[in-house]
Target: FixQ1 nitrogen fixation protein
Amino acid sequence: MTYHALREFADSWALLGMTVFFIGVVIFVLFRPKARDHARDAKMIPFREDEKDGQ
Model:
């Protein structure tokens, strides 16, 4: 393949594929079951040491 053929592919189908993948990941993260519970647990990670110390 020549440079121009690869460039044309990257500008069209590869860009479309990456966009679809990105949208799919965003939808998966926002609408999966129990996503809110996992996010709540993750945001409390920095404070777990404080809970163990009794503060």
